[in-house]
From TrEMBL:
PANTHER family: MONOACYLGLYCEROL LIPASE. Keywords: Hydrolase. GO terms for molecular function: hydrolase activity. The keyword Hydrolase applies. It comes from the Bacteria. The keyword Hydrolase applies. This is Alpha/beta hydrolase. It comes from Cyanomargarita calcarea GSE-NOS-MK-12-04C. Residues 203-238 form the RGS domain.
Length: 267
C-alpha cells in the first residue's frame, strides 16, 4: 500500500496547476507533498460532491491525518472535505478563498459575460490582465488560453446558466486563510470576514494577507507564502491548546522577493 504524503495539494482545476509549481517546490523542502487532481468530463454534473467522495476514498485507507492545501476551488474542496471528515485533516490552508467560498474568478467572468455585450475572447483577455497584472503580450495570450481551458474543464460550481451561491462553511480543524490585498476576485473584506465564522472549538486559526500578487499571489511570491504556511504548520505542531485563536495580518513591510513577471511554459 502506498503511503500518502504528509501534505496534499488539492487540484480540481488541473489546467492551472502550472501556477502552483513554485510554491510546491518551496514547501517540498519542509514536508512530503503530493497533488490530488480531479477533472470532470463534459458528461458529468457540475458538482464537487463527487470530488469529496473520491478524495475520501483516497485518504480513508490511511490511518493518519494530513495537511490539505487548496487555491480557490481547491480550497473550497478542502473546506467541504474538512467539514465532513475533520478527523482526517491535520490542518487546512486556503489560498484566495473568501468567507463566501464559492466566489472565484469564473463567477466574475460569468457575471461580466451576462452584463457586457462582449465575446468570450475579449472578456478573457481583460480577466487575464485583472488576475495577473501587466504582462507582455505573449504571456497574456498564454494566460488567456489557460483560463479558457479552465472554464471548460475545472470543477468550479459556476456556469453561464447559473452562478452558485455557497454560504460560509465552518470547520473545526486548524485553519490558515491567505489572501492578497490587491485581489479583485477575493478582496480583503472577504478574507478578514473569516474571523466571524470560526467555530469556538477551532484549535488554531490564522489569517495572512500578502501585500500584493493579485488572485494568484502564491505564484508571484511563493517563498513568502511558503514561510507563512510553514510557520502555521509549526504552530499546529507545537500547540496543545484547543481554543487558541490568533489573527496575523500582513503589514506590507516584508520584502517582496519576486516581481509580477510571468513565464508560462507551453504544454
Amino acid at each position: 500500500m502506498t503511503t500518502p504524503p504528509d501534505t496534499l495539494w488539492l487540484t480540481p482545476n488541473p489546467e492551472l496547476k502550472c501556477l502552483n509549481h513554485s510554491l510546491l517546490c518551496h514547501l517540498s523542502r519542509k514536508t512530503s507533498i503530493g497533488q490530488w487532481e480531479y477533472q470532470q468530463t463534459p458528461d458529468e454534473p457540475n458538482s464537487l460532491d463527487v470530488a469529496v467522495v473520491l478524495l475520501h476514498d483516497y485518504l480513508k485507507v490511511h490511518h493518519r491525518q494530513i495537511n490539505l492545501i487548496g487555491h480557490s476551488t481547491g480550497g473550497l474542496l478542502g473546506l467541504m472535505y474538512a467539514r465532513k471528515h475533520p478527523e482526517r485533516v491535520k490542518s487546512l490552508t486556503l489560498l484566495s478563498v473568501g468567507v463566501n467560498p464559492g466566489i472565484d474568478w469564473q463567477a466574475h467572468y460569468y457575471v461580466q459575460r451576462k452584463l457586457l455585450p462582449c465575446n468570450r475572447g475579449f472578456l478573457l483577455y481583460n480577466m487575464a490582465n485583472s488576475l495577473f497584472g501587466n504582462q507582455d503580450e505573449l504571456t497574456i495570450r498564454k494566460l488567456v488560453n489557460l483560463l479558457e481551458k479552465d472554464l471548460d474543464n475545472s470543477a468550479s460550481p459556476h456556469s453561464l446558466l447559473q452562478q452558485a451561491v455557497i454560504l460560509p462553511i465552518q470547520v473545526s480543524v486548524p485553519l490558515l486563510v491567505c489572501g492578497s490585498k490587491d485581489d479583485m476576485v477575493v478582496d480583503s473584506h472577504q478574507i478578514q470576514s473569516w474571523r466571524n465564522f470560526i467555530k469556538p472549538n477551532s484549535s488554531l486559526f490564522r489569517l495572512w494577507e500578502c501585500p500584493r500578487g493579485k488572485h494568484f499571489f502564491h505564484h508571484f511570491y511563493p517563498e513568502m507564502v511558503a514561510e507563512e504556511i510553514v510557520k502555521f504548520w509549526d504552530a499546529v505542531k507545537d500547540s496543545s491548546a484547543c481554543n487558541s485563536l490568533s489573527y496575523v495580518k500582513g503589514d506590507g513591510q516584508s520584502p517582496l522577493k519576486a516581481t509580477n513577471h510571468m513565464t508560462i511554459s507551453e504544454r
